[in-house]
Amino acid sequence: MKEKLVEELDTKEKLQNLYESVHSVSTQDALSWFHSDIVASQNKEEFGSSNPSENTPYEISTSSLLGRYIEEFESLKLGCSD
Predict the structure, then answer these.
(1) Which of the residues in the chain have pLDDT under 50?
(2) Inter-axis angle of helices 2-23 and 65-80, to 10 degrees?
(3) How far is CA 60 from the centre of its chain?
(4) Which positions ≥6 away from 37 have C-beta within 8 Å?
(5) Residues 67, 30 contacting (CB under 8 angstroms)
(6) Of 42, 43, 74, nearest in space to 57 by CA
(7) Cβ distance 33 to 65 under 8 Å?
(8) Do residues 54 and 24 lie in contact, with contact meaning Cβ atoms separated by under 8 Å?
(9) Which are the contacts of 38, defined by CB distance < 8 A and separation ≥ 6?
């Protein structure tokens, strides 16, 4: 039980740090990152897809800051579901 509590506190701290990082981003910066990811995804589809006319959702790159925030949240979310 003590181990579970320590894990929960660690996860809570990580979620709080992620929240503070995301909360400190301006709306303009977030929109700019999102736009850059969409453009990069469209360029990737145009040059890498055998059928670029397919209606596939764009992918947010995990190499972008926005993608890393999403990846970190997903990993923390999975850790909370135990």
Answers:
(1) 52-53
(2) 160
(3) 7
(4) 58, 60, 61, 64, 66, 67
(5) no
(6) 42
(7) yes
(8) no
(9) 58
Q: How many CB atoms lie within 10 A of CB 53?
A: 7
pLDDT digits (tens, 9 = 90+) for 49-68: 555 445 555 667 777 888 89
Q: Can you tell me the distance from the alpha carbon of 32 to that of 40, in angstroms, rounded to the nearest whole number?
A: 12
Joined tokens for residue 57: 């959702």
Backbone angles phi, psi at 60, to 5 degrees: -90, 125
Phi, psi of 7 (to 5 degrees): -60, -40
Six token digits for residue 66:
């926005």
Q: Whole-angstrom Cα distance, residue 51 to residue 23?
A: 38
